[in-house]
TrEMBL record:
UniProt-recorded name of the protein: Multidrug resistance operon repressor
Segments forming domain HTH marR-type: 8-142
GO molecular function, one term: DNA binding
InterPro entries noted in UniProt: HTH_MarR-typ, WH-like_DNA-bd_sf, WH_DNA-bd_sf
Entry annotated with the keyword Cell membrane: no
Name of encoding gene: mexR_1
Swiss-Prot/TrEMBL keywords: DNA-binding, Transcription, Transcription regulation
One Pfam short name: MarR_2
Amino acid sequence: MNETIPENPPLGLLLRLVHQHWTQAVDTALDTAGFGDIRPPHANVFTFTPPEGIQVSELTKLAHVRKQTMTQAVEELEKLDYVERRPDPSDRRGRLVFLTERGKAVRPIASAAGRKVDERWAQLTSPQEMEALRQSLRLLFEKVREDAPARPGAEPEG
């Protein structure tokens, strides 16, 4: 990473730059394994699609993206044979998204690449610092999620 950053950078900038480093490593591993057609917006589909399938509206909520963004990602992945949509047995109008065999092959590669990045970062700092960072970010995420006002148009939970 050759980026020049300000002396006292905003936390958001640091998070974005570190995330870009992690993402580039995963993208490189996927490309090397023959999955070079996967783009960053597709990551949410692979991350949040359970074996039993999921509706696009649920993927949207889990990934915190707009429905249009998620629908486009699912459509692209369907054309590339990473996912398929089938009727939802519990909702006549609904359709569930499932990973195909090709789609299921992506997760282990992405996970292994992510673990390598984690290991490298632990070498560059220390395992204790990485665990402290992980716990701090998890706690912050939980607090932010609890504190966040409902998005306009979002259905109330309950």
